[in-house]
Amino acid sequence: MEKLLVNDILELISKLTLIELSDLILKIEKKFNLECNIEKQEKKNNFSIFLKDIGDKKINLIKLIKELTNLSLKESKDLIEKKNPLIKNNLNKEECDSIVKKLVSVGAKVEIK
């Protein structure tokens, strides 16, 4: 019976115009509080990368930090010598993954928050 009901609903939806469909989607979101869930997912897309260990390729790490942050060489060196420094923040998942791969490739250990 459930399958029949779902199929009937889908059939009715397929007969809606785009404007009616858009209105239906907004009403469904409101009824089931889906907008809040989407906002929570968007908040999870803000990642920050912290340096936990510089590894054994310090010079390569300094150069990479310079490239990633647009800091000078001295500022990059000073940054990695701090305890658990923030490297980048407000990153989406793809940017975060890309930067983490680069940092790990030069021997660094990072933490993502």
Automatic annotation (TrEMBL):
Gene Ontology cellular component annotations, sorted alphabetically: cytosolic large ribosomal subunit
InterPro entries linked: Ribosomal_bL12 (IPR000206), Ribosomal_bL12_C (IPR013823), Ribosomal_bL12_C/ClpS-like (IPR014719), Ribosomal_bL12_oligo (IPR008932), Ribosomal_bL12_oligo_N_sf (IPR036235)
UniProt key word Lipid metabolism: no
Pfam families recorded: Ribosomal_L12 (PF00542), Ribosomal_L12_N (PF16320)
Domain Large ribosomal subunit protein bL12 oligomerization: 7-34
GO biological process: translation
Entry keyword set: Ribonucleoprotein, Ribosomal protein
One GO MF term attached to the UniProt entry: mRNA binding
Superkingdom of origin organism: Bacteria
Domain Large ribosomal subunit protein bL12 C-terminal: 47-113
UniProt-listed HAMAP family: Ribosomal_bL12 (MF_00368)
Function text: Forms part of the ribosomal stalk which helps the ribosome interact with GTP-bound translation factors. Is thus essential for accurate translation.
Oligomeric form and interacting partners: Homodimer. Part of the ribosomal stalk of the 50S ribosomal subunit. Forms a multimeric L10(L12)X complex, where L10 forms an elongated spine to which 2 to 4 L12 dimers bind in a sequential fashion. Binds GTP-bound translation factors.
PANTHER family: 39S RIBOSOMAL PROTEIN L12, LARGE RIBOSOMAL SUBUNIT PROTEIN BL12M
Family to which this protein belongs: Belongs to the bacterial ribosomal protein bL12 family.
UniProt name for this protein: Large ribosomal subunit protein bL12
Organism, scientific name: Candidatus Carsonella ruddii HT isolate Thao2000
Lineage of producing organism: Bacteria, Pseudomonadati, Pseudomonadota, Gammaproteobacteria, Oceanospirillales
Gene giving rise to this polypeptide: rplL
